[in-house]
Input
Amino acid sequence: MEPRIQYAQTADGVSIAFYTLGEGMPLVYMPFLPISHTQLEWQMPESRRWYERLAEKGKLIRYDGRGTGLSDRDATDFSLDAQILDLEAMVDRLGLQQLALFASIHGGPMAIAYAARHPERISHLIVWCSYARASDAYVSAQAQSFAALRDKDWETYTETLTHALLGWSAGEPARRYAAVLRESITQETLQAAISAAMQFDVTDLLPEVGMPTLVFHRREVPFPDLSMARGLASRMPNARLAVLEGKSLSAALGDSDAVVTAIDEFLGEGEEPVAEAPEAGAFRTVLFTDVEGSTSLTQRLGDARAREVLRTHERIVREALRAHGGSEVKTMGDGFMASFSSATRALECAIAMQRAFAEHNESAEEPIRVRVGLNAGEPIAEEEDLFGTAVIVAARIAAKAEGEEIMAANVVRELAAGKGFLFSDRGDVVLRGFEDPVRLYEVRWQEG
Output
């Protein structure tokens, strides 16, 4: 049964076709710019097996870029920024907070740019046979020959290109893909898109891509060559290089089972148990964060620059929550609400956050000072949100903290007794909206 095609609208008004397959951790599979046709690819046995295999352990999300496949064919802007709008629209349409990203060939620079702009959203990045700068990747005589043929003989170009890139031994799969290519995009649109792609250069962004990254390359593909993959892996802080044997530029052909196994292992590394939604009446420790001076930050830096600073706050908080089993309940722009089944894990998470912010602030132009407040009780769970006195008190406690402080209610201190945490008694405090005072403690987190 074919997946159901859905649509997302980009900020510049382009309709982007996509489908989802499977359940679990989202893996967004970007199109090989600009050739893509989700419906026709599904009808190809090799592609269908490949996508089904990728969806066995998670949710596969596949989309057609602008100007190709089932997406709007009237698009004229194929710049890097415009192509990223396609991905942003689809991610926002699905409400994805965390995702893994798979990109191949021309899609690699788009994925790298998106990951640099939205590090808080990307858990893992997978790059297949790609490059950072197009002008370096396509200097070979063969690449130049294909470019000349593309402008003169459309059918011969598609047949020759697919056989060369998929492997001359690919036979029928290459012929099928050549037909799909001709149905996916017009000759004129392909020329415009490739011309735009040849301007892609994300070299300066590579050091900013800090999430776990797997760079694949097949040793004998005609172009881009292996040096491009080595360059990517060496300049991204948390990247590794996997070199495979073979000539096919398609991951779906050749040793595709080995590729999927490597992807599964990569995505599963360091996997923390997913925090379960709390049952009604379950005892939870509730944590709030709040960026000190966020309003003045926006007034001083402007919306765009302030948003970059807040994205760093979001990334650090989410990394700490994943590492300590916290469940993100919601974000309020300049703060988070999270819950834990363990007071100890909540305190460890709060300390990890403050230490990460302190490390960030050592070299940051704009330091991020965050208040953290914790309380414990039996909140009301409703529609993936938490309500009730325990939640309100936690928020009020966070408001009483200063930047770089962690404040906790006495009940949290008692739950974590004997676990090695250092608390400083801040006395009884009357919280807004409550008559009875609450005993507060500052959690000491600085090393030494």
About this structure: The CA atoms of residues 409 and 440 lie 5 Å apart.
